[in-house]
Amino acid sequence: MSKSTVRAAAVQIAPDLTSRAGTVERVLNAISEACDKGAELIVFPETFVPYYPYFSFVLPPMQQGAEHLRLYDEAVTVPSAETRAVADAARKRGAVIVLGVTERDHGSLYNTQLIFDADGSLALKRRKITPTYHERMIWGQGDGAGLRVVDTAVGRMGALACWEHYNPLARYALMAQHEEIHASHFPGSLVGPIFGEQIEVTMRHHALEAGCFVVNATGWLTEDQIAQIHPDPALQRGLRDGCMTCIITPEGRHVVPPLTSGEGILIGDLDMRLITKRKRMMDSVGHYARPELLRLIHDARPAHPRETANPDPAPVDAAPQPDEVQDA
């Protein structure tokens, strides 16, 4: 831990539901605004680029085809012009940026988290290990290689998306790697008020259990966007509220009041000394652990659809020369 204080920003804004380029522009504008306020770490909502697939929550499967295909067209490849633009912004402003994207990898989409370090390098690309409920028709599954804590300019960082936080072993995998700052994000504008309440409980609990800071960002939808997603007022109720953008200390407290409605950027200073203060009392992967009784087995290998047991055969040599034939 090198920095004693880190200024963090959690961004709650609406995407552009019509284009990837429009959402990227909003990301870059928010980076500038947060950095102008001194932010060294900026966290954006879940799959913010191009947008979270809200349609999958309110449309039956037979009616999702057109929107799912449109998401394929708007999805992000890594690397791409979009990721390079964010990397350039991170480098120019000297900020660590955590961005959620829907990533396209050939014929599949994934819920992907990207951590760009302050020098513009991509410190981590990970995929949500299990999409939730309606999301399983949209995204594929990630693997254990993404459950990794990385060193950044602001400290040791780990990241999980949405209900991955209800998988205690996924959280423990990051805790055991001694994360200092946990980046988290949820879609926001989903389910209703109970979703925001659950997010707050979950974020505060992880901060306490891990002895780390949590910076969580949720998204926002305008009334026009909600009407665009579905015209039925009854179903539109499922596309409101559910926001809880917050910054939590290792003692489970809000650094600043959370943002639960509207657009905005939370700015909070992380006093990194609080990590040791918390862990002196309870280090769940150190002096409070009992690894001889309970421990995690984590398969951190990337999952590939094709593995080769032997290298490809060497190319066949050209026909032997006359001297070689005579020697034989």
Explained architecture:
- This protein is of the alpha/beta class and 328 residues long.
- The protein has a single domain (5-289, 298-305), classed as Carbon-nitrogen hydrolase (Nitrilase/N-carbamoyl-D-aminoacid amidohydrolase).
- The chain is built from ten helices and eleven strands.
- It has helices spanning 20-36, 55-58, 65-74, 81-93, 168-175, 193-210, 223-229, 233-236, 273-281, 322-327; strands at 5-12, 41-43, 96-105, 108-116, 122-127, 150-152, 155-161, 181-186, 213-218, 246-248, 264-271.
- The protein has a six-stranded mixed beta sheet. A five-stranded mixed beta sheet has the order 6-7-8-9-10, with helices on one face.
- A hairpin with a 5-residue loop joins strand 4 and strand 5 (122-127).
- It is globular and about 55 Å long.
- It starts with a strand and ends with a helix.
- This is Nit6803 family nitrilase.
- InterPro entries: C-N_Hydrolase (IPR003010), C-N_Hydrolase_sf (IPR036526), Nitrilase (IPR023919), Nitrilase/CN_hydratase_CS (IPR000132), Nitrilases_CHs (IPR044149).
- Residues 6-272 form the CN hydrolase domain.
